[in-house]
## 1
Amino acid sequence: AAAARTRPSGGASNRTVGLGRGRLRSPFPPHHQRVHTVSSELKSRIQADLNAARKERDKGRTLVLGTILSEIRNKEIDGRVDLDDEGVIQVVSKAIKQRNDASAQFRDAGRPELADQEEAQAAVLQVYLPEALSEDEVRAMVREAIAGGADQMGAVMGALMPRIRGRFDGG
């Protein structure tokens, strides 16, 4: 015989009567939402700018900043760590590079309006990267690394990359 399910008089309880199961509890916390902690200053700046864009009803910036925060969260989930500023810069630079590539492809396909849209999105993200290094500054850093004893290409790159990551595109 099927047992009847009744709602207890307490209202807020998650108790089920019947079927011999007794009291059932949800495995999720009461608020049902994951609390995102902001571990990097850059990520918190992007979040604040997203909130400001939402208040200003700026759809373009809201879309771009929401997307980049999503990409940052996905990277954190994949690596099971909270990204620091350097990790966030890597995600932002990758997103800018993707938008620039998409812009070039749209231009080649005769779709300048879509290319302009991709370039505008890249410009929104460019604000979050540190100031770019000039080629001369990078050459000076390479000379320093060589003078410091790095004689193989791998050693030079190992010394150089942490200093220029996200600030210089050698392409």
## 2
Amino acid sequence: IRDSAKSVAEARVLENTALVLDAARACEIPVIHCTAAFRPDRAGSFDNVPLVNRLTQNPNHLQVGSPEVEVCPELRPAPSDLESQRLLGISPFHGTGLDPLLRSAGATTVVATGVSINVGIIGLTIEALNRGYHVICEKPMAMHQDEADEMIQAAEANNRHLFIHQNYRFQ
């Protein structure tokens, strides 16, 4: 988890994501924030996922209604933004209304960006590709090469496009 936080900070993920979201809003493209939370009693949480097991050791971590599960203020959430919160699973598609939200908006492409590059972005990307969406990922797209390879394999298996957006500008 520390490596992920360091990678997020070094890549300026929050700052770059805020710019992407501002541009989407300016073009009237729907912004959907995918967040994760746990019930206080942890009911419904999988006990066969090592990362979730580690997180559940702290009973207050990512608890529904706590400030830590709110959208980061650095992303400048707007009243027009939507939120899809998951209480179980690793992918934002499982156990949420994310897919119907995207389909009702007529989305054919998902932009996968955010701070959860060690789990959430990978799950979002693979599941979006499996559901027939094209995906654009901000850099870094994954923490490790094997994770990036899984994302590429999902795109190839589903005949979908996976793009990696270069968020750095050359001077």
## 3
Amino acid sequence: VFAVEATFTNNVEVTESEPWPNVEAYVTRGGFTTVASSFADAVTNAQAVDVITLAKDLDSNAKINLPADVTLDGNGHALTYTGTDKEQAFITASTNADNVTVKNITINANNIKHGVQFYCCDGGTLENATVNGGIYTAVIVNGATDVTIADSTLKPAASAYTNIEYAMGSG
């Protein structure tokens, strides 16, 4: 939990601390933490070395593609896929999205092929995560190198063929 203090002048002084009920995510960049206008906006505007931290459990009907050198810190919260497109993965570190970290999160991916995918990237970490679902697998490492999965629980769908798939990938 972050402590944020805001002070306004011109005859009015207000101090407020998080958590704010409508905040979905925070972004830490260069040592400064700001409130993102939405989780989707935080991901879309993410830059290298940003840390996107969830402020609460969230549903997403869109797939999430994380850019290079970004950390998604679930902060103990859950991210649930609610979309209808079953192809690919809910959360992906794709070609040239090297060194992506996903941690401290529960990922619910019950209506899509894979919960998390590392695709043709170099370096990636899934840490202290629970991945529930994935019609085929909970995690796919597809043409990626140097991927670490640590202290995580993988629970793919009952009909899935494996917890983790290692594939050749190309791209």
## 4
Amino acid sequence: VLCAGTAGINLGGLLTDRLVRRGISDAPLRVGAISALAVSVLVVAMTQAPSAGLALAAAVLLLFAIAFPSGAGMAAVQLVVPNQLRARMTALFVLVSNLTAMLLGPPLVGVCTDYVFRDPAALDLALALVCGIAAALCAATLAWGAGHYRRSSQCLASGLGVGAVAMEGVT
């Protein structure tokens, strides 16, 4: 369990770097989307496992998948934000990510347990439902944003700046 997160961060970063070197500029978002899809499957597998051993195996894989895009996410922010704003945008990224997870996740699981399943023992089902849907939405959002991210990184690489993306289609 202790090694899964560390392995996920390192291997996710290696994959992202390899994809970027191959010319895939939206690699950080692709890695995040793939990881989010894996999380949506693994959280259901963990909560619905028929034995403790299988639940533990799924939990280890889940920790790996959750950590996998961590470095790529931070790198993605750094790559498309102007130098003068990188610290602020990174702080905002971390703040929004953590506030979203901490303020929405636990209450939604409780609401599902109490009002959707109407059974305090259905915590596993509520956790699978909330986390599975949240991870699937995350994957869809990252996939949708990949095109925008790709255009922004191409504008930055060509020296036009991110503002050129906003002007795209205006003329």
